[in-house]
Amino acid sequence: MEYNHILIRFGELTTKGKNKKDFIRRLKENTKHALVNFPNVKIESQHDRMFIVLNGEDAYDVCDVLKNVFGIYSFSLAKKCEKNIDEIADAALAMIREEDESKKFKVVARRSDKSFSMNSDEINRYVATRILVNSNFKVDVHNPDIKVQVEIRPDCAYVLTKVIMGAGGYPVGVGGKALVMLSGGIDSPVASYLTMKRGIEIECVHYASPPYTSDRAQEKVLELARKLSGYQGKIKVHVVPFTDLQLEIYKHANEAYPITIMRRMMYRIAERIAERNNCLAIVNGESVGQVASQTLESMNTINSVITMPVLRPVVTYDKLEIIDIAKHIDTYELSIQPFEDCCTIFTPKNPVTKPTIKKAQSFENWDYESMIEDCIANTTTIVITPKKENSNLF
Ligand code: ATP
Ligand code: MG
Fold first, then answer.
1. Residues having CB within 6 Å of any atom of ligand 1
2. Is the pTM of this model over 0.85?
3. Same domain, residue pair 52 and 110
4. Does residue 64 have a pLDDT over 60?
5. How many angstroms is it from 253 CA to the middle of ligand 1?
6. C-alpha of residue 213 to centroid of ligand 2, in Å
7. What proportion of the chain, given as a percentage, has pLDDT over 90?
8. How far is CA 159 from CA 104, 283, 294, in A?
9. Residues 235 and 126 in one domain
10. Domain at 143, CATH number
11. What are the residues facing 208 on neighbouring strands?
12. Do both 323 and 384 map to the same domain?
């Protein structure tokens, strides 16, 4: 079966009223970026749907890419035909032949061109008869396994069968931009994915502590960003040299507080990098109860150093639920590679689980401000794209 079109349905977009135009424009742009390796495709958008004109590109390869584009609710492989009932019936027959003959079908015709010589019911009967006479498929109008859809439009007709579910959500970018604190762990890539799914574009900040953390550990984070970049085209990763500040923290905090102070510093730096890059929120992979720094007391003590909103998409998820998503987005195997991150190296034996703001402040009685600014001044920004060779350093 030679498909020549893919029909894309928007789902959630249709509920967005006056913003709809922006959404569709963004979805079209994002889809175009995602399909960069298919130079012949053309994208045509209408007010309630979008068509990909394949122009000879492989339909199934294009489908694989479309599954990762947020804002697409579902899509179907389609054949565009002349408005000729025999051509339509033949296309329907060829399409259903790809299915198992034990399945039951129903033909559903829709006419937006009322001048077409047959009405919907006549089209249904004509196409169904063509299938019944030439195959062993049977009809079930109440509970069909396959719906053969025929659409008669003013300029042409479409025939389609399978509905493939898309990634859902909103097109990345319609919801503004946020800065994700990206570690090499399991949680923050999942938090990134869920953020992009709500239509929010992301940049990432990663705190590196060489030589305590290795080049391989950083490479792993960039590989995670590469996986995530498939959802939005490219991702900027700001790598912050964190070693000096981290060592200084240990000189000033007692046994129990270094992690709390370290995270307060991370938040301070993240807020400034976010502001300087027009990000309106910070995102991280914190989940209540997972580790000492993720109690509500800790979150309060850490969060109090900044005013920018902090989004925690996985805050109420069980680890197993997070792992399921990590596997679904193919970041899990990378995340469990055993490279030390800056938290694991400096973890004290008995970190405080109920820190207070007052106590934390008492360990910050030194000039951390200038060290924070040094961290930011020495930050390297790397642009990551889905294909390795396209990434660059600037
Ligand atoms: P993850 O699996 O995402 O690493 P975690 O369970 O290990 O999370 P923590 O190490 O306490 O939890 O970190 C909580 C969150 O803080 C992470 O999800 C991430 O958003 C952020 N974070 C931790 N370490 C770093 C780092 N080196 N660079 C950037 N962000 C970090
Ligand atoms: Mg971690």
1. 181-183, 185-188, 205-207, 284-286, 290-291, 293, 341-343
2. yes
3. yes
4. yes
5. 21
6. 13
7. 81
8. 17, 43, 53
9. no
10. 3.30.2130.30
11. 241
12. yes
